[in-house]
């Protein structure tokens, strides 16, 4: 299965991006932030499998709309697929974030006891 390895920018890189791109960078970052759960989810084994078919169907629906050949039913299908991708992305990303938190709590720290934070 193909996964996407998207490097995470550091704070300095983001600040530089905003300085050099102005207001357009602000909008870009807003869009990326709203889709962060998708990026997190698609990079997991489960998320990649769950989202693979939805993304393909979404692409096909989008192409119909872009070619101006979409019926009202096609437009509804596109919106439903967009909603499903958002819902499942959030669920998968939240699941993996919860796993990471639990893993940190369960793994012993340097003193040999579990970290209870």
Produce a short descriptive summary.
With 117 residues, this protein is mainly alpha-helical. It has 5 helices and no strands. The mean pLDDT is 79.
Which structural traits does this protein have?
117 residues; mainly alpha; 5 helices; 0% strand; single chain
Weakly predicted, low-confidence segments: none
Radius of gyration: 19 Å
Order of helices and strands: HHHHH
Largest sheet: none
- Give the overall silhouette: flat
Instruction: State the secondary-structure class.
Output: mainly alpha
Number of strands: 0
Quote the beta fraction: under 5%
Q: In percent, how helical is the residue content?
A: over 70%
Averaging pLDDT over every residue, what do you get?
79
Distance between the termini: 36 Å
Query: If helices are DSSP runs of H or I spanning 4 or more residues, what is the number of helices?
Result: 5
Characterise this structure.
By secondary structure, the protein is mostly helical. Helices cover 74% and strands 0% of the residues. It is built from 5 helices and no strands. Helix 1 crosses helix 2.
């Amino acid at each position: 299965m193909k996964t996407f390895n998207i490097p995470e920018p550091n704070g300095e890189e983001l600040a530089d991006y905003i300085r050099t791109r102005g207001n357009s960078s602000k909008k870009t970052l807003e869009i990326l932030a709203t889709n962060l759960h998708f990026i997190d989810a698609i990079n997991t084994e489960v998320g990649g499998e769950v989202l693979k078919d939805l993304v393909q169907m979404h692409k096909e629906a989008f192409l119909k709309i872009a070619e101006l050949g979409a019926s009202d039913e096609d437009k509804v299908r596109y919106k439903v697929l967009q909603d499903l991708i958002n819902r499942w992305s959030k669920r998968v990303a939240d699941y993996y974030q919860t796993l990471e938190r639990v893993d940190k709590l369960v793994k012993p720290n340097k003193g040999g006891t579990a970290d209870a934070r």
